[in-house]
Amino acid sequence: MISAKRAARLNQNKHREAEGLFLAEGAAFLEESPEPPTALFETPEEVRKISTFTTPTGPVGVFPFLDVDRDLLLQRSDVVILLHGVQDPGNVGTIIRAAHAFGAGVALSTGCADLYNPKTVRATMGSIFHAPVARHLDSLELLAAAHDAGFVRVAAVAGSGETAIELPASKLLIAVGAEGSGLPEDVVSACDTGVTIPSRAASLNAAMAASILLYEAYRRVLP
Questions:
Q1: Residue 172 sits in the same domain as residue 215
Q2: Which of 38, 91, 163, 181 is buried most deeply by CB count within 10 Å?
Q3: Which H, E and C letters describe the chain, residue by residue?
Q4: Do 141 and 32 share a structural domain?
Q5: Is the peptide bond before 59 cis (omega within 30 degrees of 0)?
Q6: Bridge-partner residues for 82, per DSSP?
């Protein structure tokens, strides 16, 4: 039996990791889950006790962790977006939403925002239940495994890559870094090619860049 007090502890990473459980809030959000929650809290008092948001949207469900391992991610997805060091929970959640929309999987490197942070979960708008996500990955090890699995590895770079419209219609792993710092040189060098999104702005945040590249990859395989 999971009490509201115990559920509230899941707002802290150490308790989530210890129990392998996370929180999802909001009726529309919970409807996205193909399985019922392990526990459900619906009364205003319970929701206020558990929610970390200024305006709780309740109800709140408790769910087991959903992430997959690296190999399963590569088996299940023909397009994978690798986020290297993207620390903003909103960006990570939004990218998971885009990956769901465009039929892709998501790889989170070590140092990315926590997949089960309430802000990350909320930004997925329920897509956390649908898009396969692997976390705590070494980017170089993933890129090597993707090569062995037949993926073309593409690095999002500023100014010197091919245009997104030239993405090949093949299994793709697209690496995206945080706005500003971008991808480190060793990650770029481990990729087969680079891609650049033409923009009048100095830079695009990770969520915008990843969403555009995921859409372009999706367009390559549309009938």
A1: yes
A2: 91
A3: CCCHHHHHHCCCHHHHHHHCEEEEECHHHHCCCCCCCCEEECCHHHHHHHCCCCCCCCCEEEEECCCCCHHHHHHHCCEEEEEECCCCHHHHHHHHHHHHHCCCEEEEECCCCCCCCHHHHHHHCCHHHCCCEEEEECHHHHHHHHHHCCCEEEEECCCCCEEHHHCCCCCEEEEEEECCCECCHHHHHCCCEEEECCCCCCCCCHHHHHHHHHHHHHHHCCC
A4: no
A5: yes
A6: 107, 175
**Domain end marker among 64, 81, 98:** 64
pLDDT at 191 over 70: yes
Spatial CB neighbours of 92, under 8 Å, sequence gap ≥ 6: 83, 86, 108, 112, 113, 115, 120, 123
Same domain flag for 8 and 86: no
For residue 139, the domain's CATH number is 3.40.1280.10
By the 8 A CB rule, do 102 and 8 touch? no
Residue 222 has pLDDT above 60, yes or no: no
22 with 81, same domain: the answer is no
Number of domains in the chain: 2
User: Is 0.90 surpassed by the pTM of this model?
Assistant: yes
Residue 55: give its domain's CATH number.
3.30.1330.30
Token couple for 16: 């989530």
Same domain, yes or no: 185 and 83: yes
pLDDT at residue 91 in the model: 96
The domain containing residue 91 runs over which residues?
A: 70-220
